[in-house]
TrEMBL record:
<comment type="pathway">
    <text>tRNA modification; tRNA-queuosine biosynthesis.</text>
</comment>
<dbReference type="InterPro" id="IPR042118">
    <property type="entry name" value="QueA_dom1"/>
</dbReference>
<keyword id="KW-0671">Queuosine biosynthesis</keyword>
<dbReference type="Pfam" id="PF02547">
    <property type="entry name" value="Queuosine_synth"/>
</dbReference>
<keyword id="KW-0949">S-adenosyl-L-methionine</keyword>
<dbReference type="InterPro" id="IPR003699">
    <property type="entry name" value="QueA"/>
</dbReference>
<keyword id="KW-0328">Glycosyltransferase</keyword>
<comment type="subunit">
    <text>Monomer.</text>
</comment>
<comment type="function">
    <text>Transfers and isomerizes the ribose moiety from AdoMet to the 7-aminomethyl group of 7-deazaguanine (preQ1-tRNA) to give epoxyqueuosine (oQ-tRNA).</text>
</comment>
<protein>
    <recommendedName>
        <fullName>S-adenosylmethionine:tRNA ribosyltransferase-isomerase</fullName>
        <ecNumber>2.4.99.17</ecNumber>
    </recommendedName>
</protein>
<dbReference type="InterPro" id="IPR042119">
    <property type="entry name" value="QueA_dom2"/>
</dbReference>
<dbReference type="GO" id="GO:0051075">
    <property type="term" value="F:S-adenosylmethionine:tRNA ribosyltransferase-isomerase activity"/>
</dbReference>
<comment type="similarity">
    <text>Belongs to the QueA family.</text>
</comment>
<dbReference type="InterPro" id="IPR036100">
    <property type="entry name" value="QueA_sf"/>
</dbReference>
<keyword id="KW-0808">Transferase</keyword>
<keyword id="KW-0963">Cytoplasm</keyword>
Length: 352
C-alpha cells in the first residue's frame, strides 16, 4: 500500500491543544464488528467492558525529556532525550546552530554539565560530568515535559506534568505518553475491576520516533524505529486465563498492541511468551493479530504508522471511513484528544 492511501483532511482546529477538564471528559467513537459507528462519552466504556475481559495498559512513565542550555561558547542548545542509557549517559537529539562535536561541554539549565561523547546515527550520546546525581535524577529535576510537536505552545505548563502522564505510570523511560491511557482515572480503573474485568500491564518506553513521519511512498519500505519493551510472566498468565474464560484482550493504546504482538512474534510457536528487549514491529494491513482482540486508541496523524496499525485491525476502508466521520463530527485529535474503540470485523481480509 502507499503512504498517500492513509491521508485524510484534518482541520487544524480539531487538533487538541489541551486536555479536557477531567480525564474521563472526552468522547468515545466505537466501531462495531459490522463497521457501524456509535458516539459515546468515555465513561460509557464501562457499559462495553465485560466480565472476564482483560484490559492491557502500558505502565511506562514519561520523563521530562526536554532540556535547554548552552554551549561553553554561548550558543543555545535544546536537548530531547530519546533514551536513558545508564546512570550517567543519555541518548539524545540536539538542536543547535551547529552540531556539537565530541568533547563539547553543554551547560544544562544553568545547573549541570554534559559532555558530547559521539554520535549514534542522527542522535548524540552525552554523559553527565561531575556531581553525584544520576542522569535520570537530573532530568526529573530540571527537564520539561516533551509535548508533541502538534501542540503549539512555546512552553509546557504545570498541568502537563500530571495530565501528560497516566495515573498508573510506574517505570520511567518514555519521551511521549501512551495517550489512550490518559483518559483513565483511578475511579474508572476501580469500576472496571468491579465489573469482573481484569487489568494487566506491559511496558514500552515510547521514543520520539513515534512522531517520525513515513517518508517513502511504498509503506513496505519504511524502517520502523526501535523501542524497548517488557512483557512479563504475570501478563502472559492473565492472557491465558482470559482466553480460557472466554474474555477479550483489549489493548489500551497502540503501544500495548506493539508489546503484545511483538512478544508473540518473537516466540517460536507464535504464542504469547514473556519478552524483554527491543522491537521495531511495523503493523500494517494484512497483519494477522495473534493476541489483541479489541483496541482502544486515540485518533492519529494522517499517513502515520499508527493509523496504519489501526487499519490492520479494523480494515483499511472501515478505518478511513471512521476517520472521515470523526472529522465531520468534530472529534478532537491526537494526544489530548478523544478516543476510539475498535472491534475488528470477524471476516477481515488481508489487504495488499
Amino acid at each position: 500500500m502507499k503512504r498517500q492511501d492513509f491521508y485524510f483532511d484534518l482541520p487544524e482546529e480539531l487538533i487538541a491543544q489541551a486536555p479536557t477538564a477531567e480525564r474521563r471528559g472526552s468522547r468515545l467513537l466505537m466501531m462495531q464488528a459490522d463497521g457501524s459507528l456509535q458516539d459515546y462519552r468515555f465513561p460509557q466504556l464501562l457499559d462495553i467492558v465485560r466480565e472476564n475481559d482483560l484490559l492491557v495498559f502500558n505502565d511506562t512513565k514519561v520523563i521530562p525529556a526536554r532540556l535547554f542550555g548552552q554551549k561553553e561558547s554561548g550558543g543555545k542548545v535544546e536537548l530531547l532525550i530519546e533514551r536513558v542509557l545508564d546512570e550517567s549517559t543519555l541518548l539524545t537529539h540536539i538542536r543547535s546552530s551547529r552540531s556539537p562535536k565530541p568533547g563539547t561541554r553543554l551547560i544544562i539549565e544553568d545547573a549541570f554539565e554534559v559532555e558530547v561523547l559521539g554520535r549514534q546515527d542522527a542522535l548524540f550520546i552525552v554523559k553527565v560530568v561531575g556531581g553525584n546525581a544520576s542522569a535520570l535524577d537530573l532530568v526529573e529535576r530540571y527537564g520539561h515535559m516533551p509535548l508533541p510537536p502538534y501542540i503549539e505552545r512555546s512552553e509546557d505548563q504545570e498541568e502537563d506534568k500530571q495530565r501528560y502522564q497516566t495515573v498508573y505510570s510506574q517505570k520511567p523511560g518514555a519521551v511521549a505518553a501512551p495517550t489512550a491511557g490518559l483518559h483513565f482515572d483511578e475511579e474508572m480503573l476501580s469500576a472496571i475491576q468491579a465489573k469482573g474485568a481484569k487489568i494487566g500491564f506491559v511496558t514500552l518506553h515510547v521514543g520520539a520516533g513515534t512522531f517520525k513521519p513515513v517518508q517513502v511512498d511504498d509503506i513496505s519500505e519504511h524502517v520502523m524505529h526501535s523501542e524497548y519493551l517488557e512483557v512479563d510472566d504475570e501478563l502472559v498468565k492473565q492472557v491465558a486465563e482470559t482466553r480460557k474464560a472466554g474474555g477479550r484482550v483489549i489493548a489500551v493504546g497502540t503501544t500495548s498492541v506493539r508489546c503484545l504482538e511483538s512478544a508473540a512474534q518473537f516466540s517460536e510457536d507464535g504464542s504469547l511468551q514473556p519478552y524483554q528487549g527491543e522491537t521495531d514491529i511495523f503493523i500494517t494491513p494484512g497483519y494477522q493479530f495473534k493476541v489483541v482482540d479489541v483496541l482502544l486508541t486515540n485518533f492519529h496523524l494522517p499517513e502515520s504508522t499508527l493509523i496504519m496499525l489501526v487499519s490492520a485491525l479494523a480494515g483499511y476502508e472501515r478505518t478511513m471511513a471512521a476517520y472521515r466521520y470523526a472529522v465531520e463530527q468534530n472529534y478532537r485529535f491526537f494526544s489530548y484528544g478523544d478516543a476510539m474503540l475498535v472491534f475488528p470485523p470477524q471476516d477481515i481480509k488481508q489487504e495488499e
